[in-house]
């Protein structure tokens, strides 16, 4: 199998699809690896490290896409990359297609196979390829919020932790029981904030069992969310439905009640966002202000810590990449139900039900096509 690793071209995306360690594992299994020159540079991995691991370093993305059977990426392909797809090529990356109608149709038209990291689902419902980046994004969210609370960054001028005699900031985490939310709550507590965790009772019970300190748990309903958002200095959006568009749980009317200089970090923006005033931003232009409230809605938050993120991502994706390369697509997805749930587009059809529903496109079960 020929596996290609192109350089990421999304704005300020510094991660790379596979580390040199991962390349060594794949080459030792007998596969040919093509790595675009400087693909790993921003993550701290030099071309010669990939070459020593057994990869062939090529000069352009076109060489990678033209030759590879499987493309291992990090973020969703941009239009210039979609133009290089060829029939039956397998693209293994984060897609978030529920919020990407144009990309979905490009994949369908190309007859490419899209396996989305974020919908690979284990029998217990966990998302093994989303979890590592959710750890990173969740842990970064309070740190980012603290930065934008600073007056020089247009914030309210509050210190997240407060000081003796001055109360800490209130951090509200929407969807606190999930991986992003629980990590955000943990770090916010560690930074000294007063944390209000909002979710349904069962995930809140698990979270309160893990975390102590100033953690407060509140059942998710519109009235409770409205009350918490109104008093918040920071709101972190972490509501996720695998493969589907995130539900909006905080309305624009709620945002209007927040104090000027407060901060929203909507980590759910990849799936459309869980706050009504959310719109996607980039690392080069990360914030905008609505009704005096700072919104940070960057779609690739883990890209700002690429070394950690790339290593964590490869740890999770490598076993699945090996399975696809060793067994071939059809055998791999027939033997591994979790991997089969990652298939979003195949032979021109949408094979993930939540994606199809979100986009209003007919759904075709994968089992009917293989």
Question: How would you sum up this structure in a few lines?
Answer:
The chain is of the alpha/beta class and 370 residues long.
- What is the mean pLDDT? 96
Strand segment tally: 15
**Molecular shape:** globular
Percent strand equals: 15-25%
Instruction: State the end-to-end CA separation.
Output: 20 Å
Q: Report the major sheet.
A: 8 strands, mixed
Relative helix content: 25-40%
C-alpha-based Rg, rounded: 21 Å
Would you tell me the structural class of the helices and strands?
Answer: alpha/beta
CATH classification, class level of the largest domain: Alpha Beta
The overall number of domains is 2
The unreliable regions are none
Q: Could you say what the CATH architecture of the largest domain is?
A: 3-Layer(aba) Sandwich
| Strand order, largest beta sheet | 3-2-1-4-5-6-14-15
CATH superfamily name of the largest domain?
Answer: NAD(P)-binding Rossmann-like Domain
CATH topology label of the largest domain: Rossmann fold
Counting copies of identical and different chains, the oligomeric state is single chain
Helices, by number, come to 14
Structural account:
The protein is an alpha/beta fold and 370 residues long. It folds into two domains: 2-120 and 306-368, 3-Layer(aba) Sandwich (Rossmann fold), CATH 3.40.50; 133-304, 3-Layer(aba) Sandwich (Rossmann fold). Helix content is 36%, strand content 16%. The mean pLDDT is 96.
């Amino acid at each position: 199998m020929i596996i290609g690793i192109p350089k990421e071209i999304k704005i300020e995306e510094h991660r790379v699809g596979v580390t040199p360690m991962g390349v060594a594992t794949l080459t030792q299994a007998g596969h040919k690896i093509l790595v675009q020159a400087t693909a790993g540079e921003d993550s701290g991995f030099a071309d010669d490290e990939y070459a020593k691991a057994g990869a062939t370093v090529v000069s352009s993305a076109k060489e990678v896409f033209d030759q590879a059977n499987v493309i291992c990426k990090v973020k969703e392909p941009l239009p210039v990359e979609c133009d290089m797809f060829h029939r039956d090529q397998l693209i293994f990356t984060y897609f978030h297609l529920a919020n990407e109608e144009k990309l979905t149709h490009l994949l369908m038209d190309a007859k490419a196979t899209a396996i989305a990291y974020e919908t690979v689902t284990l029998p217990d419902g966990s998302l093994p390829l989303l979890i590592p980046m959710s750890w990173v994004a969740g842990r970064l969210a309070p740190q980012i919020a603290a930065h934008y609370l600073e007056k020089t960054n247009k914030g309210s001028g509050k210190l997240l932790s407060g000081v003796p005699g001055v109360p800490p900031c209130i951090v509200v985490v929407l969807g606190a029981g999930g991986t992003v939310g629980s990590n955000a709550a943990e770090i916010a507590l560690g930074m000294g904030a007063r944390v209000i965790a909002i979710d349904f009772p069962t995930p809140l019970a698990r979270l309160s069992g893990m975390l102590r300190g100033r953690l407060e748990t509140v059942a998710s309903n519109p009235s409770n969310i409205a009350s918490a958002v109104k008093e918040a200095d920071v709101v972190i959006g972490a509501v996720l439905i695998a493969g589907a568009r995130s539900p909006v749980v905080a309305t624009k009317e709620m945002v209007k009640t927040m104090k000027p200089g407060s901060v929203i970090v909507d980590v759910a923006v990849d799936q459309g966002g869980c706050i009504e005033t959310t719109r996607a931003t980039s690392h080069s232009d990360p914030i905008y202000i609505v009704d005096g409230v700072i919104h940070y809605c960057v779609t690739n938050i883990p890209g700002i810590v690429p070394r950690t993120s790339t290593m964590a991502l490869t740890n999770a994706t490598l076993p699945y990449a090996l399975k696809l390369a060793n067994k071939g697509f059809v055998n791999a997805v027939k033997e591994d139900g979790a991997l089969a749930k990652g298939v979003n587009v195949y032979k021109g059809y949408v094979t993930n039900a939540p994606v199809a529903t979100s986009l209003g496109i007919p759904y075709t079960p994968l089992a009917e096509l293989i």
